[in-house]
Amino acid sequence: MGTIFSKIVSGKIPCYKVAEDNDHLAFLDIQPNAEGHTLCIPKKETDKLFDLSADEYHALMAFSRRVALAIEKAIPCLRVGMSVIGLEVPHAHVHLIPLQQMADATFAKKITPTPERMKAIATQISEQWDPLA
Known about the structure:
Distance between the termini: 35 Å
Order of helices and strands: HEEEHEEH
Number of helices: 3
Helix content: 25-40%
Number of strands: 5
CATH topology: HIT family, subunit A
Number of domains: 1
Mean pLDDT: 95
């Protein structure tokens, strides 16, 4: 069957890729709360975050941390917030959201950047990506 995220990993669906390693992928959320709102996923399809093994969970958190550091360098914000909800797609994922105010983390406010802007944001973040951070 495969989730939409698995289809992104396989290349069947395009994304605005921010970072990637052997086991994880980070890409911009297409319904972002703020510019730079990024999803970090394990490439291995796993329904819930806490279904990951302890090693897989820690690896995803370490990957997400490195992506958050890149976001902080690329996107002006007070901080990068992390949210794990997991109801939208049955594939473990972490939301990294550049925050200016608490409302940016509520998922009640969405923005609609153009495809050109999304591509530019993805490039800005990926240029700051340090896989060894």
